[in-house]
Every structure is written in structure tokens, then in C-alpha cells.
Amino acid sequence: MKKTITLQINGKQHEIAVEPYETLLQILRNQAHLRGTKRGCDSGGCGCCTVHLDGRAVYSCMIFASSLQGRKVTTIEGLPQGKELDPLQAAFVEAGAVQCGYCTCGIIMTAKELLAGNEPLDETQIRHGIAGNLCRCTGYTKIVDAIKIADASR
Amino acid sequence: MSLTSATEYFTPNGNQELLELLDRYGAGALIVAGGSFVHGLDARGLLLGIEALIDIRNLGLKQLTSDDDGLTIGAMVTFTELVQSEEVRSSAVLGAVRDALEYPPLQIRNVATVGGNIAAACPYFDLPTAFLALDAEVQVQGSGGARNLALHEMLVGLFQNGLEAGEFVTGLFLPRAPVRTASAFIKLESNANDLAIVNVAVRVSLDSAGSCQDARVAIGGGVAETSVRSSAAESVLQGEKVSDDLLQRVGEAVQSDLQPMSDHRASAAYRSAMAKTLTQRALRRALGRL
């Protein structure tokens, strides 16, 4: 049976009717029409669906939509300030860290949390930090480069 | 996730409300903590006929309480919250917990909970092995009241926990250990994020002469239907000083206690060989913390 929940997505209030088994990923793509968040494995293994829930990176395919009453979600669409890309997004452009692009939004959302800490990150911390995100194109080198650029410029 | 049989999603605001829901839905109820293993259970066909998902986020099971007796971890404490707690970050006794929480990715650490990890009774999980080496007790609530189970009484079988109908996990208790005690955990996985092929946790207490006065050796990851202790390995360690020769005998004792599974992750023979090696490494790591 559908129930209506109210949550904040990228700073805007949304009222969405959800089935008990529906996930955050499903409502983002199908009801909020935010398609930057990708559906990959749908079982918490690939990281394409990573978004922030109350400021923390999560696999949106594993979060029941019904658990979101009153909570705050940020997706890749919520990162730019107006027409200005987020510095992390700009770093991905600068480093050429995108090939097919399917994993990119998820990796940026994961890296966003890594860069929220106070300390600069070394390469091991970056690689360990994005271990929950798979990229089948790049071999990760340019992704790691991009995160280093963003880390150095903050 | 599929679970399309579920027609209700409840978020009870108190224990009484939860107990009533468990009573009303019986085997059709599924308690959801972090939710990160719901897919894992569903994919194994273990969630057929689930009618009601019951989210326990509003029961206040988020506390970490430390006193002279030990550390109590609320069922809804996430891996991130646990690894960031001062005690887990600094205590040699809890080294195994710290080690085990290194493996899951950020997105899992942020949602997976201690209670869910235990209640799932998954033989491949890491924390149950670590907690087994730390003499953990599981705190349980039912309509008849509260009770504590030793962790091995909770890990009954393959995806089978020791809860009675209508009961739920409220937390986990880790008792204090003697002075000069340290623990460590090591996991073998085929790639990042995978379930364990083998995992091992050890806890050792040394006396003033540097001999082992108390030891725990726990092994998981498909070596049995649950994570298990190796009493043979613990006996070998008892009263002895750790040497290369002793580690050899401890490793062999671990192997004598196990009858590992063969599956798509690893053969029984490989699991057995790795259980020996990882036990030896984990012991060295634990001793290095003393």
C-alpha cells in the first residue's frame, strides 16, 4: 500500500507516494526525475547509485524510500552552485576522468564525502575511499588524479 | 530489491508498538535496521512471504555506553559510528573490531548496523567473527522481557539466529578483558567489497612473564555454518609463549577443528589452508598491539 512521504531532495521539499518495497534509487529516477543517479547492480556492489543521505554517502539502491520521512538527500544534480560546477566536478573535467560516464556521478558523490574531512588525502586513502565504486573503463588512474586535484584546491 | 510481497512499512516509536507488530505479522514480519543486507537475504530466497517491513530507527537503539563492566553497543549503531567511537579507535582489546571495520566500503559503513549484522546470522560476515573472539553477548527483547544470549547461541546456523518468535536484538555487550589483552582480525576476500573467503579474529591476554594466560581464536567466512571458535587452537596457546613453533601448532589445531565449505568463492582445502595462515598472522598482529 502506498504511503506519502515528505523529504528534501537537493534543498527542495518533495511529497512522494511510495510502496513499502521501493528504494531511494527508484524514487529519485522515476518520481523525482533525477537521472544522474544510475542503477547498476541494484544490490550494493557497484556504487553507481551513490547519493548523500543526511550528509553521508550511501547506496541509494539499499535505502527503503519509506525510511526517508523528513530526511535530506543530495544527488549529483544538487552539487553545482547555479551554473558553476562543484570544484570536484570541475576536477573530473580537468583530469578527463570520465569515459563512458556511468560510474562518474556515484564516484563524485563518494569522493565528496572523502573530501569533507579536514586532512588532505594520500593516494592510498583515495583508492581505499572509492573502493565501493566500480569503474570498468578507466582503470581509475584519472579518477584518482581528479580527486587529488580537488583535494589540493580546497 | 524486490520484496514486492511487502504491503506495509512500519516505523514503530517504541518497544511495545514493535512487539505488537511482531505478534501481528509473525513470520511475515521483517525487522529492518540499516537495510544493507536485505537484498542479500532476498537473493538467497530467504524473504519469501514477507508482508511487513518494520524499521526500528525510532527505538533509540543508538547509544554506545562504556562502564567498568564493558562496552554496550546499541543495535542501530552504524559501522561508521562504531569505528569513530573513542574506545574502538584506541583500545588494544577492541583491535579486532577496528580491523573488521576497515573492509566494508564507505557506503556500507554509513548504513550497516551492529544489530543487523548479528541478526542476519550470515556465515561470511566479519563482525560476528570479531565479536566471537571478544566474548560478546547479544541483548534481546521480547514480550516476556529482556535476556542476554552468548553470541554463539545467537549464531545458530546458516542464516538462522537464536531469536524466539517475537524477539528482537536491542544491542551487543562486550565485557572487559584482563590487562595486557589485545585482539586482531584479518579477512581474505577475492576482491574489495566481497564476502569473506575466510576471516579470523584472535584475542590474547598475556601474564607478567609474557605467557598466554587466555586466548580466543574465532574463524568465519564459510568455514562452517556460522563463525566458530577453535577450542583446539585456544588450548595450544594456553600457558605458552608465542614462538614460530607454537604458531605452527596453533595453525594445525585450527585446521583440525574446521570442516570448511566448498563454494564458488573457494574450495574447502583452500579455506583450511588460509584459516591456518590468517590465524598465525592475526596472532602476530594482536601481539604487536601489546
Give the topology, please.
The complex is a heterodimer of chains A (154) and B (290).
Chain A: E1 3-9, E2 12-18, H1 24-30, E3 50-53, E4 56-59, E5 72-74, H2 87-95, H3 104-114, H4 123-129, H5 141-152
Parallel strand pairs in A: 1-5
Antiparallel strand pairs in A: 1-2, 3-4, 3-5
Chain B: E1 8-10, H1 15-25, E2 29-32, H2 38-43, E3 52-55, E4 64-66, E5 70-74, H3 79-83, H4 86-90, H5 95-100, H6 106-109, H7 114-119, H8 127-133, E6 137-142, E7 145-150, H9 151-154, E8 155-157, E9 160-161, E10 168-175, E11 181-188, E12 198-206, E13 212-220, E14 228-229, H10 231-237, H11 244-257, H12 268-288
Helix pairs in contact in B: 10-11, 11-12
Plain-language structure description:
The complex is a heterodimer of chains A (154) and B (290). With 154 residues, chain A is of the alpha+beta class. Chain A is built from five helices and five strands, in the order ββαβββαααα. Chain A has two domains: 76 residues, Beta-grasp domain (Ubiquitin-like (UB roll)); 66 residues, [2Fe-2S]-binding domain (DNA polymerase, domain 1), CATH 1.10.150. Chain A has a five-stranded mixed sheet with strand order 2-1-5-3-4, covered by helices on one side. In chain A, strand 1 and strand 2 form a beta hairpin. The longest helix of chain A is centred in the last third of the chain and has 12 residues. Chain A is globular. The relative contact order of chain A is 0.16. Chain B has 290 residues and is α+β, with helices and mostly antiparallel strands. Chain B has three domains: 47 residues; 114 residues, 2-Layer Sandwich (Uridine Diphospho-n-acetylenolpyruvylglucosamine Reductase, domain 3); 108 residues, CO dehydrogenase flavoprotein, C-terminal domain (Enolase-like, domain 1). Chain B is built from twelve helices and 14 strands. In chain B, a hairpin with a 3-residue loop joins strand 4 and strand 5. Chain B starts with 7 loop residues before the first strand and ends with a helix. At the A-B interface, strand 4 and helix 3 of A face helix 2, strand 3 and helix 6 of B.
